[in-house]
Amino acid sequence: MVIAYMNTLGRLKALAGATGGAVCTSSNAHLVVDWARKQNKKILFVPDQHLGRNTAWKLGMDLNKLVTLPDPQIFGAGYSLTDGTIDGGVAALDKAEMILWGAYCGVHTIFSAAMVGWWQERGWKVLVHPESPLETVQAADGAGSTDYLWKAAMGAKRGDKIVIGTEGYFVRNAAAEAARRGVEIKHLADIPDPSFGTAGCGCATMSRNDPPHLAGMLDLLRRGEAPDINRVIAGDSVDEITARRDRLSGEEQAELVRDAKLSLERMISINEAGA
């Protein structure tokens, strides 16, 4: 069965629903994967391998029973199950309890255990997002969703010093809010040591969601002149480079909505049962 992260296409959510799986978030991934294991089916976790691996570790799963598929940005679909690209090949896939899609977040994957240690040695508490590599999560003082990170920042006491490893704009906003209460917050990658070679780590996709673009779109909507490419219908897939849109037929859309709804309803049910 497929377990698909919330921030995926509707088509992947529908695949999760059709295979008996569910959607998950970084907050409830452990609940969803724990539920999936009890269904006695092999799990395909998509798309973030780090979130999948960290979830398995949190649940105490045997990490030797995880198989990570090749990086799709490098291999695409251009590999065979028997050409050695997958360590262990078909036999490893057969024995695996969970298969991880080989993708990752370009922001979180650069965070390292060495970065965590640098800050901890200087008296800072380090919190990271679970899309960070496993060794980074294990080294940190805490790991959790953006909701967890925000609450930790807003609930800190005056004089606390917290380092957060996630998207740069989030950390900047948290730092501004926390500073009003005497709490100091830094970004994990903002280490004043050139040997680390990192700084900032803003998400290029999230940065497009800014006030000028929002105001412009609201104005176009008000005038009834919003570009057709911005109109999203269930199942739409838009190439981020060419902006080419692939739209399903009416029958395909209805099938997608049905299956995607199943995956979301399962997640809600699992979440409520685990609350």
Topology overview:
Layout: E1 2-5, H1 10-18, E2 22-24, H2 29-37, E3 43-46, H3 49-58, E4 66-68, H4 72-75, H5 89-95, E5 98-100, H6 113-120, E6 125-128, H7 134-139, E7 142-143, H8 146-154, E8 161-165, H9 168-179, E9 184-187, H10 211-222, E10 237-238, E11 245-246, H11 250-274
Parallel strand pairs: 1-2, 1-3, 3-5, 4-5, 6-7, 6-8, 8-9
Antiparallel strand pairs: 10-11
Helix pairs in contact: 1-11, 8-9
Tell me what you see in this structure.
The chain is of the alpha/beta class and 275 residues long. Among the domains are: 2-100, Rossmann fold (3-Layer(aba) Sandwich); 108-187, Rossmann fold (3-Layer(aba) Sandwich). The protein is 40% helix and 13% strand. It has helices spanning 10-18, 29-37, 49-58, 72-75, 89-95, 113-120, 134-139, 146-154, 168-179, 211-222, 250-274, and strands at residues 2-5, 22-24, 43-46, 66-68, 98-100, 125-128, 142-143, 161-165, 184-187, 237-238, 245-246. The strands form 3 sheets. The chain has a 5-stranded parallel sheet with strand order 2-1-3-5-4. Helix 1 (10-18) packs across helix 11 (250-274) and helix 8 runs parallel beside helix 9. The protein is globular and about 55 Å long. It starts with a strand and ends with a helix. The model has no long low-confidence stretch (mean pLDDT 92).
